[in-house]
């Protein structure tokens, strides 16, 4: 399929090479290749896109990124630097690249202001945040965005009418030590990433963020971070037990998925799993993505291009849903 759109696609700052090597050591079999690819927001990426029929990529700063920085001033300075860097990449290839804002999430008003700057000055298409913000004197605290203090931020997101991508990061501090330290191979895609994002997103549901901000659009990757497979059970327990006990969210979990939540195929190229998600959620809430450079263009695109889906479903997920959600400009093969 030509003109695909991909939106969980990471870059780093070349000057943070050492941090990239550390992260690559945890997740990349070929650390040199990974470090080269993630630092590129030009020719290497464009060549892969051309080879594999990806017309447009929404760039985002790699995990754990700014969410790993517990000093609020440093976090904000890095976010601004990253956004200025991403803006230059987009300005060089506006018909191939867009960007998500990178945000320090220490302070809701500051995060809102940086998002507003990126959207209004740079034309960024939303924000991508790596789960909870590390905070506190030694980085052991975690800031969630599901409480009332964050309403000012969510209000800005919906005023600007841009989506918010909730991306995973690695477990840290006490949580890491208690849950994961003795099970290190489960950190990342096998379990901890989905564990973190599903907790955070379901916290937003049950703490009423989507009731207070009914137009808010949140995207999660990896075919929904395990939540779609639990929809029946979550629904049963919310509706039949938790609401009678006091859970106050207004809609059912399926309604939030219908009205507020999107999933992407990033890093999860399984046909039966996608078919299951389409049965549960329908094709209007699913978006193609790769998860480059943690996953390869060929694994994602060869799988996608060979999928026996109806043409209109394939066009929706591969391109048209993203075009509408992000109000994309014309890009390579955008009408193919
Ligand atoms: C990511 O999407 O950021 C990611 C990692 C590490 C491993 C896999 C992965 O940061 O998808």
TrEMBL record:
Keywords noted in UniProt: Decarboxylase, Lyase
Top-level taxon: Eukaryota
Domain Amidohydrolase-related: 29-328
Listed Gene3D superfamilies: Metal-dependent hydrolases
InterPro entries hit by this protein: ACMSD, Amidohydro-rel, Metal_Hydrolase
Pfam families: Amidohydro_2 (PF04909)
Family: Belongs to the metallo-dependent hydrolases superfamily.
Name of the molecule in the record: Amidohydrolase-related domain-containing protein
Protein species of origin: Sporothrix eucalyptigena
Organism lineage: Eukaryota, Fungi, Dikarya, Ascomycota, Pezizomycotina
